[in-house]
Amino acid sequence: MRLDLPLGDQTATLNGLRFTNVDASGMAHHKMHDETWTPVPTPPHLDPEKRVLSYPSTAATLNLAANAAQCARIWAGIDAAFAARLLERRAPRL
Predict the structure, then answer these.
(1) How many structural domains comprise the chain?
(2) Which residues are registered as beta bridge partners of 22?
(3) What is the pLDDT of residue 94?
(4) Averaged in consecutive runs of 10 residues, what is the pLDDT profile of the chain (94 residues)?
(5) What angle in degrees, to the nearest 10, is found between the helix axes of 58-75 and 80-90?
(6) What gap in Å lies between CA 30 and CA 6, rounded to an integer?
(7) For the chain, where are the alpha helices, taking DSSP H only?
(8) Partners of 39 in the beta sheet?
(9) Do 65 and 88 contact (CB within 8 A), yes or no?
(10) Which of 15, 31, 56, 75 is the most exposed place for a label (fewest CB within 10 A)?
(11) Contact between 31 and 5 (Cβ < 8 Å)
């Protein structure tokens, strides 16, 4: 998957960001959220707000890899097959 992403520190030019086309396959998306705040409490199936998927990020990808590795260690003695699947998914394809 190729995406146009803002790279580097562009805080001084937030109104005129420069985008670079990058290969983001294998990366984790940073977050998914409502476009505007949803009233609390609102069950997910009754949420009328539009959902927004943020760009993939290095931070989210590495966080996912770290969590998968830790879970593989925890599950190793409980379900070896599941632990092996977690280890396969912990390494980002960069």
Answers:
(1) 1
(2) 3
(3) 46
(4) 78 81 82 86 88 84 90 94 85 51
(5) 160
(6) 14
(7) 58-75, 80-90
(8) none
(9) no
(10) 15
(11) no
Vertex 25: Cα angle to 20 and 30 (nearest 5): 75
Under DSSP, is residue 31 helix (H, G, I), strand (E, B) or coil?
A: coil
Question: How far is 94 from 64, CA to CA, in rounded Å?
Answer: 14
What pLDDT does 76 receive?
Answer: 95
Instruction: Please answer whether residues 28 and 55 qualify as being in contact, where contact means their C-beta atoms are separated by less than 8 angstroms.
Output: no
Between the CA of residue 48 and those of 34, 52, 86, what are the distances in Å?
Answer: 9, 13, 34
Structure tokens at 3: 């995406």
pTM over 0.85: no
**CA-atom Rg of the chain in angstroms:** 18
Task: Give the domain extent around 63.
Answer: 2-90
Q: What tokens appear for 88 in the block?
A: 């396969």
What sign results for the dihedral spanned by CA atoms 2, 13, 29, 27?
Answer: positive
Which of 3, 4, 9 minimizes the C-alpha distance to 26? 3
